[in-house]
Input
Amino acid sequence: MLSREELDRIAAADEARLGVGSKEFIQRHNEIMELIDRAQEKGGKANVKADHECQRRCGSLGSE
Output
């Protein structure tokens, strides 16, 4: 098992390798988060449409 100090050294080395906190790292992070937001919005719209279609087929929306 690794000691706390060894884990800290590994984490610090990974942070340095990845450039955590750098302008490029933050920019890429923001790009990824924007892509996630867009995918969730599209997924949400698709889910609403699917729910509406299911309700229409099942008759729970009346004559719509």
About this structure: The chain has a mean pLDDT of 84. The two ends are 63 Å apart (CA to CA). The chain has two helices and no strands. The helical segments are 4-18, 23-58.
